[in-house]
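REVIEWER CHECKLIST
Item 1: Sequence provided? yes
Item 2: Single chain? yes
Item 3: Sequence as submitted:
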Amino acid sequence: MVLDTSPRLDRVFHALAHPARRAMIRQLSDGERNLSELAAPLKMTFPAATKHVRVLEGAKLVRRRVVGREHL
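Item 4: Structure as written out by the authors:
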């Protein structure tokens, strides 16, 4: 058996391991959302949502886009 020890693959699986992050990915599949829009249905605090989005960004599953003062 060959084990893939790719750090990128590890980050992707780690990012998808948490149900809240999977829910965020599902929300984003319908279009862009700001952090408040991602956090609200999950009843999550802004700092917690920020942490989860950063994990998704680190795995390159989402990208942040800045429009004025809003981060999408």
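Item 5: Key structural point noted by reviewer: The two ends are 41 Å apart (CA to CA).
Item 6: Recommendation: ____
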